[in-house]
Specification:
The protein has 322 residues and is an alpha/beta fold. It contains 13 helices and 9 strands. The protein has 2 domains: 89 residues, Tetratricopeptide repeat domain (Serine Threonine Protein Phosphatase 5, Tetratricopeptide repeat, Alpha Horseshoe), CATH 1.25.40.10; 203 residues, Rossmann fold (3-Layer(aba) Sandwich).
Length: 322
């Protein structure tokens, strides 16, 4: 999905920036960068900084093949914004100019999804044909056709797309997400018993599981792990939160090509893609599930959704805690 536009707070600068974005979308990236730079220069003359505009300019330079200019801006952005709301550090890592982090910066994820929230469902489902929740629900039902869950914990619940698929099959439904705006959208659907603002990578069991409620017998994570590279901590946390015999079901994006001979996930475990999302191999996921005390019941290769006109490859997994 396209990034939301962050206003500079100045009408003239915003107008120039909008024209620049339109030119970039039309494919004239160098001219767009020139116009975007004018917008930033106009603000600089007033001693104003616009980090969001700087990031937009960096992407225009990148698309124009002007890598040095883009890299200089990413370094500048990291100094201006150490929490890295725009993913400049991820950009540098993806270009091989920095270490690949274990996870995307929390500030980046929160800003990204706070901006996406107003039109998230429409953009993802109607325009990009997103089917991750439906495919995962089908795989769960295949293995547990009659099971009713006492308490389901939906990690990275977003606006509640996965919750809509499962809420009729459970007594309690808890959701956790880093984005306050996404949680508000999920609350509006009135299907969640409890909603928690939490960063899964920094959370402990006590942050996610209320001792006054039954221990979860299912944990879901749809489109969550694409923002986490190294999944060891997340899988360990899932095992701690889930009762024995409980179901752990989730999706990942992948760089595997199962249709090709000898492509069984034996490539890189994890890759940071130009989209600034992480993809994982099936082999890595299976090994990590086993190491985290889960039995892999099934997994399927699926087309998750459209991205720039092509379908993204992914997997849905269903595992059970031993």
């Amino acid at each position: 999905m396209a990034r939301a536009f962050f206003s500079s707070g100045d009408l003239i600068a915003d107008r120039r920036a909008h024209y620049a974005v339109m030119m970039s979308e039309a494919g004239d990236h160098s001219a767009a960068a020139d116009l975007m730079r004018q917008s930033l220069d106009y603000l600089n003359a007033q001693f104003l900084q616009w980090p969001a505009g700087m990031f937009v300019l960096s992407e225009m330079h990148e698309n124009a093949g002007e890598t040095d200019e883009a890299v200089a801006l990413w370094h500048k952005l990291l100094k201006l914004d150490p929490k890295d709301r725009f993913g400049a550090g991820l950009k540098l890592a993806q270009c091989g100019l920095g270490e690949t982090p274990d996870t995307a910066p929390p500030a980046y994820i929160e800003a990204l999804f706070d901006a996406y929230a107003p039109d998230f469902d429409e953009a993802l489902v109607d325009k990009l044909h997103y089917c991750g929740p439906q495919k995962l629900a089908e795989l769960i039902t295949k293995h547990f056709p009659e099971r009713h869950y006492q308490h389901v914990l939906d990690l990275g619940c977003g606006t509640g797309l996965m919750g809509e698929e499962i809420h009729q099959h459970c007594g309690l439904l808890s959701g956790a997400d880093l984005s306050e705006a996404m949680l508000k959208k999920a609350e509006d659907k009135q299907i969640y018993t409890r909603l928690i603002k939490a960063d899964i990578n920094l959370s402990r069991k006590a942050d996610l599981v209320d001792e006054a409620l039954p221990q979860p017998d299912m944990i879901l994570a749809v489109d969550l792990f694409i923002y986490i590279g190294q999944l060891e901590r997340a899988f360990t946390l899932a095992a701690e939160c889930l009762r024995r015999g409980g179901v752990f079901a989730f999706s990942v994006e992948t760089h595997d090509r199962p249709e090709l001979p000898n492509s069984d996930g034996s490539c890189d475990d994890m890759i940071l893609q130009p989209s600034l999302r992480f993809t994982h191999s099936a082999r890595y996921i299976q090994n990590l599930l086993q190491a985290s005390r889960f039995e892999v019941l099934d997994y399927q290769h699926i087309a998750l959704r459209l991205d720039r006109g092509a379908y993204l490859d992914g997997y849905v997994f269903v595992a059970q805690k031993l």
